[in-house]
Amino acid sequence: MKRNIDATVKESSINKKLSRPLSVPSSTTSGKSHFETNGDNTIISAKAEFLRRVSNSISHLIDRHGYSRSRASELVLGEIQKGNPLPSEDEIFSAMEKYHLGMNEALEAIVVSSAL
């Protein structure tokens, strides 16, 4: 789960950072990082599909039902979280400190990352 939180926060701030590392390790001559395998392509595909569906759901609520982006996001997040226990205070405060987030943003990051 910790890796998913890291990935979620990293993806949300990707516009602020370089899209690739400044130096490429010598073991990545094929163009893939040493973490990528064929199984990772399936995971990446599933994550992309998840993000597409979330985005489409939010857009649908905004365009067809007149919800604000904030309210639509809150509803979709509630559906993602449904059936799963809320993160503990320790998890929330840890994410807040590590990623310099507010409480709501940390909670959202944890819920979304657990769904990924």
As residue ranges, the low-confidence spans are: 13-30
| E-strand count | 0
| Class per helix and strand makeup | mainly alpha
Helix and strand sequence: HHHHH
- β-strand amount: under 5%
On the 0 to 100 scale, the average pLDDT is 77
Shape estimate = globular
Instruction: Please work out how many helical segments DSSP would assign.
Output: 5
Give the N-terminus to C-terminus distance in angstroms: 9 Å
Return Rg in Å. 16 Å
The description of the largest β-sheet is: none
Report the helical percentage.
55-70%
Name the descriptors:
116 residues; mainly alpha; 5 helices
Tell me what the structure shows:
The protein is mostly helical and 116 residues long. The protein contains five helices and no strands. The model is unreliable at 13-30 (pLDDT under 50).
What is the secondary structure topology, with strand pairs?
Layout (H helix, E strand, L loop, with lengths): L1 H11 L25 H28 L3 H13 L7 H11 L3 H13 L1
Helix pairs in contact: 1-5, 2-3, 4-5
Q: How is this structure best summarized?
A:
The chain has 116 residues and is an all-alpha fold.
